[in-house]
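pls ignore typos typing on phone
4-nitrophenyl beta-D-glucopyranoside + seq
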Amino acid sequence: MSPRQLFKIILGFGSLVSLVTGEEWAFPEDFKFGVATSAYQIEGGWDADGKGVSVWDRLTHETPGIIADGSNGDIACDSYHKWERDVEMVKETGVDYYRFSLSWTRIFPQGFVNYVNPYGVAYYNNLIDKLLENGIEPVITLFHWDSPQTFSALGTLSNTAFINLFAQYARKAYELFGDRVKIWITFNEPKVVCQDFHWFLGNVTAVYPAGVIEYLCTHNLLKAHAEAYHIYNREFKATQKGKVSITLNFEWSEPASDSPEDIAAAEQRRQFEFGLYANPIINFDYPQIVKDRVAQRSALEGFPESRLPQFTLDEKLRIKGTYDYLGLNHYSTWYVRASEEEEIGRPSYAADTGTYRYQNPDWEGSGAEWNKVVPWGLRNILKWIKDTYRNVDVLITECGYPDTTGDVDDEPRVEFFRLYLNATLQAIHEDGVNVKAFMAWSLMDNFEWQQGYQIKFGIFSVDFSDEERTRTPKKSVEYIRNVVETRLIN
Ligand code: PNW
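k done
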């Protein structure tokens, strides 16, 4: 029996039980569904109507070999011109939310807010208005990786100047769009920005001084987030009545065995990967284990103080509580085992994190190596978040399934959503987690960063060989639409 068949039997049994007991697991009334995209991945129009250059424009244009298929986002899905069709697609899916990001340099070509590009503002105004006309609520990410190229000379996020530059940008965004936009996300996936891909900082060719800049970036990003939160609270909240938070990515770390060492190793990894950002914002300061490990390794490496900067008490208090919900992006799960300490040598976040992780080769795969289908990982994450962060409201801002075919008959993606939506329902009903939304990644096939167009996450396919960038619904559109309508998984 395949896992899929087994799952259907279990699901079937579950519905039988609920029939008999008269209770049925439905998505609560106030639960919202959505679909998500980001500016650089879909918009194209990279230099249209006065848009300035972002680090992704520069990177893809000037670094041969960096994108798997040699492509870039110059045209992408051409959403800069096809946005009306995008709104139709969201409408067709029947969801409540459309999450998209602002291209910073489309609105502020140089990154600085002294000059506002009216075409950029008009683009987002039109999109927002059209969404609202269609009963769809916009969810806006301010920073989904395409920072202004002009900041690169400063080291972008590794420079404290970034804090104020971002705060000014956020204020302008609230001013321009906040009368209609009520859900704001400051940063998408800080860990990816600061710990995973150094070229997000615009530092394409230089040897990356890992282990130092990684934490400077984290430190400044958390402060920039907090400033953007406080600006909203102080200057806009009373009139605009919206919510501001951050979206963190979390791949679940499951202990590889019941041994205390493996259990501790998995927790260590969660704290390094998620706690590094969530703890200062929701609890207080960086997690103790992160502070201790980075300090110890820094000392052995000969640094006079920890490579992880310290917040002053005022800063800790200023960052604490800067969330009105928690945004979560989730894709897959790993087993984690305790491992020997990496030798003292080149300092790095990876060495600080320690531990060893792997995936079970028997887990159902997908079009991306790392993206194994492990729905219980999502449920465990949600439970862990509930326990670690006092049952904060969680919006799942991304969750999705990649393939390489782009087939409109995307049964494996349907199955993925069935399983992950069911894990969400279990977390709500059995574990009492406050999950308030599920947004599918992605509305359409798009520029998948380093993988270019080879990996497809869309519930709509896009014909990239056609100038019109024709979009076609896949089976998963119908599936999601049905879940939204019935509020049940079937
Ligand atoms: C997200 N991981 O990144 C991004 O927010 C999207 O822009 C992107 O297209 C999408 O995932 C699909 O890749 C990820 O650690 C970050 O496994 C980290 C992980 C996965 C995705």
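The pocket of 4-nitrophenyl beta-D-glucopyranoside is lined by residues 38, 41, 188-189, 192, 249, 251, 329, 331-332, 370, 398, 441, 448, 457 (CB under 6 Å). Residues 41 and 446 are 6 Å apart (CA to CA). more later
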